[in-house]
Amino acid sequence: MSAATDPIKLMKQGVGKAAAELVQSGTIVGLGTGSTTAYAIQYIGERLKSGEIKDIVGIPTSFQAEVLAKQYGIPLTTLDAVDHIDVAIDGADEVDPQLNLIKGGGAAHTREKVVDSLAAKFIVVVDSGKLVEQLGSTFLLPVEVIPMALSPAMAAIKKLGGTPELRMGVKKAGPVITDQGNMVIDVKFDSIDNPAELEKNLNNIPGVLENGLFVGVTDVVLVGEVKDGKPVIREM
Ligand code: 5RP
């Protein structure tokens, strides 16, 4: 299958572009992480370059977002220099009917939660394969842990009913190391009945920095689908 007809790629491109079109001149934009948001960053950069929008500054949620923003000419700032974020655009690994999310497939959920939670409007961009009835049904829940607390944190996660697994690198021996120098435990829960409670309980474990449950943060979910070979975007 060519890249031009790969349905997943078409959905990601379409939804990334749709989110980028919502960015207005003179705004501070949270730039998410992942392959879908990468298209949003690209199209924001193209709109800036063409003069369609101006005076945008981005706040990246990861090293990846920072590199892409620089590549596509989006000026960057930090949370020390601004007192608000107008809009954040970010991907997700799962979205439930209440618009709660699991994030962290790219091990960036800690910074993503900081930026996405601060945004006046948080737009989630996903392909239709990310929609689930209940969180945790298709994706393990990522939990970022400081390295010295790995063993006790895993034991505490088991007591909460989870099955923890240290995330290992690809083309890198040993564990994945986050942008903050920590590790990620991916946790299987048989059923996440109360995401808000689990989010708090996990973050209460000493040594846990942040987990990938995003509860009550999302304002808009744009879903990309492919119909008759063409990307179609709908709002959830
Ligand atoms: C990174 C994330 C990503 O937003 C999430 O994994 C979705 O990525 P993609 O758009 O590549 O499917 O949470 O930590």
Give the distance, in angstroms, between the N- and C-terminal Cα atoms: 29 Å
Q: Please write the CATH class name of the largest domain.
A: Alpha Beta
| Ligand catalogue | ribulose-5-phosphate
Tell me the fraction of residues in β-strands, as a range. Answer: 25-35%
Question: Percent helix among the residues?
Answer: 25-40%
The CATH architecture assignment of the largest domain turns out to be: 3-Layer(aba) Sandwich
The quaternary state of the protein chains shown equals single chain
CATH topology of the largest domain: Rossmann fold
| Major sheet: arrangement of strands | 2-1-3-6-12-13
| Apparent shape | globular
DSSP E strands, number: 13
Largest sheet: 6 strands, mixed
Helices, by number, come to: 6
Show unreliable segments: none
Global structural class: alpha/beta
Describe this structure in words.
- It is built from six helices and 13 strands.
- Helix 1 (about 5-20) packs across helix 2.
- Helix content is about 30%, strand content about 25%.
- It has helices spanning about 5-20, 35-50, 65-70, 110-120, 150-160, 195-205, and strands at about 30, 55-60, 85-90, 95, 100, 120-125, 140-145, 165, 185-190, 210, 215, 220-225, 230-235.
- It has a six-stranded mixed beta sheet with strand order 2-1-3-6-12-13.
- With about 240 residues, the chain is of the alpha/beta class.
- Bound molecules: ribulose-5-phosphate.
- Ribulose-5-phosphate (5RP) binds next to helix 2 and helix 4.
A few lines on this structure:
The protein has 236 residues and is of the alpha/beta class. It has helices at 7-20, 35-50, 63-71, 109-118, 150-159, 195-203, and strands spanning 28-31, 57-60, 85-90, 94-95, 101-102, 119-127, 141-145, 163-166, 183-188, 208-211, 213-214, 220-227, 230-235.
